[in-house]
Amino acid sequence: MLRPLVSPAMPSHDWHILSDETQLTLSRAALVLAVQTVAGQAEMLALEMENGALADRGGPDALRLFAAVLRVSQDSGMEVRGNA
Predict the structure, then answer these.
(1) Which residue in 65, 63, 69 sits closest to 42, CA to CA?
(2) Per-residue model confidence as pLDDT tens digits over 15-41
Protein backbone atom coordinates (compact mmCIF):
# COMPACT_ATOMS: atom_id res chain seq x y z
CA MET A 1 0.00 0.00 0.00
CA LEU A 2 1.21 3.50 -0.80
CA ARG A 3 1.94 5.83 2.07
CA PRO A 4 1.27 9.53 1.66
CA LEU A 5 4.45 11.56 1.27
CA VAL A 6 2.78 14.66 2.68
CA SER A 7 -0.18 15.29 4.93
CA PRO A 8 -3.57 15.20 3.14
CA ALA A 9 -4.24 18.50 4.91
CA MET A 10 -1.21 20.11 3.29
CA PRO A 11 -2.01 23.78 2.65
CA SER A 12 -2.07 24.65 -1.05
CA HIS A 13 0.72 27.21 -0.68
CA ASP A 14 3.00 24.39 0.54
CA TRP A 15 2.24 22.43 -2.65
CA HIS A 16 3.74 25.17 -4.77
CA ILE A 17 7.10 25.05 -2.99
CA LEU A 18 7.53 21.42 -4.07
CA SER A 19 9.52 20.75 -7.22
CA ASP A 20 7.66 19.84 -10.41
CA GLU A 21 9.08 16.33 -10.18
CA THR A 22 7.79 15.91 -6.61
CA GLN A 23 4.36 17.25 -7.60
CA LEU A 24 4.22 14.76 -10.49
CA THR A 25 5.29 11.89 -8.23
CA LEU A 26 2.67 12.76 -5.63
CA SER A 27 -0.03 13.21 -8.26
CA ARG A 28 0.75 9.83 -9.85
CA ALA A 29 0.74 8.13 -6.45
CA ALA A 30 -2.67 9.67 -5.70
CA LEU A 31 -4.05 8.48 -9.05
CA VAL A 32 -2.74 4.95 -8.48
CA LEU A 33 -4.30 4.84 -5.03
CA ALA A 34 -7.61 6.19 -6.37
CA VAL A 35 -7.72 3.54 -9.12
CA GLN A 36 -6.92 0.77 -6.64
CA THR A 37 -9.62 2.01 -4.27
CA VAL A 38 -12.37 2.33 -6.88
CA ALA A 39 -11.50 -1.00 -8.53
CA GLY A 40 -11.49 -2.72 -5.15
CA GLN A 41 -14.88 -1.26 -4.28
CA ALA A 42 -16.28 -2.45 -7.62
CA GLU A 43 -15.01 -5.97 -6.87
CA MET A 44 -16.53 -5.84 -3.38
CA LEU A 45 -19.91 -4.75 -4.75
CA ALA A 46 -19.80 -7.60 -7.27
CA LEU A 47 -19.23 -10.10 -4.46
CA GLU A 48 -22.05 -8.58 -2.39
CA MET A 49 -24.41 -9.00 -5.36
CA GLU A 50 -23.30 -12.58 -5.93
CA ASN A 51 -23.81 -13.36 -2.23
CA GLY A 52 -27.34 -11.92 -2.32
CA ALA A 53 -26.72 -8.90 -0.10
CA LEU A 54 -27.60 -6.57 -3.00
CA ALA A 55 -30.09 -7.06 -5.84
CA ASP A 56 -28.37 -8.60 -8.86
CA ARG A 57 -29.42 -7.08 -12.18
CA GLY A 58 -26.34 -8.07 -14.15
CA GLY A 59 -24.17 -5.89 -11.97
CA PRO A 60 -21.33 -8.22 -10.94
CA ASP A 61 -20.08 -8.71 -14.50
CA ALA A 62 -20.38 -5.00 -15.24
CA LEU A 63 -18.53 -4.09 -12.04
CA ARG A 64 -15.74 -6.55 -12.78
CA LEU A 65 -15.43 -5.15 -16.29
CA PHE A 66 -15.27 -1.63 -14.83
CA ALA A 67 -12.55 -2.72 -12.37
CA ALA A 68 -10.56 -4.37 -15.17
CA VAL A 69 -10.81 -1.28 -17.37
CA LEU A 70 -9.56 0.88 -14.49
CA ARG A 71 -6.62 -1.41 -13.88
CA VAL A 72 -5.68 -1.66 -17.57
CA SER A 73 -5.95 2.11 -17.93
CA GLN A 74 -3.70 2.54 -14.90
CA ASP A 75 -1.12 0.10 -16.25
CA SER A 76 -0.92 1.75 -19.67
CA GLY A 77 -1.89 5.35 -19.04
CA MET A 78 0.37 6.63 -16.30
CA GLU A 79 3.38 7.58 -18.42
CA VAL A 80 4.38 11.21 -18.45
CA ARG A 81 3.23 13.28 -21.41
CA GLY A 82 4.47 16.83 -21.75
CA ASN A 83 5.70 19.03 -18.93
CA ALA A 84 4.25 20.18 -15.65
Answers:
(1) 63
(2) 889 899 999 999 999 988 988 888 888
Residues 6+ apart with CB under 8 A from 25: 5
For residue 37, the one-letter residue type is: T
Q: What is the pLDDT of residue 1?
A: 47
**CA contacts within 13 A on the Cβ side of 50:** 11
Distance CA 59, CA 45 (A): 8
Q: What is the mean pLDDT of the chain?
A: 78
pTM: predicted TM-score of the whole model, two decimal places: 0.60
**Cβ(48)–Cβ(10) under 8 Å?**
no
84, 24 Cβ separation under 8 angstroms: yes
CA distance 5 to 61: 36
